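Problem: given the chain below (103 residues), write out its structure.
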Amino acid sequence: MSVKIEQFSERRKSSQPPGASMGSMFKNPDDDYAGRLIEAAGLKGTRIGNAEISKIHGNFFINHGETKASDVRKLIDLTRKTVKEKFNAELELEIELIGEWHD
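Solution.
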């Protein structure tokens, strides 16, 4: 059992960003992967305030400390808009937005 756990942990470390991530942001569309679309749109590393699209995996947003909800919302909106314009694909949030998400 511990070998399987270690293998899973190693696979996760190589495919997901370390540190304070907000997790997987978007559901995968039926015929593609959200992370692939975000990466193909050239958005990896895009940053608004202290919120950044991971340079390791495009479907993970990173919190660089004291990130404002409004900055996360702007990054979500930019990501959705860019992917829609480039690939005509709709990205649906995997997370639930609770509370105030504007300036």
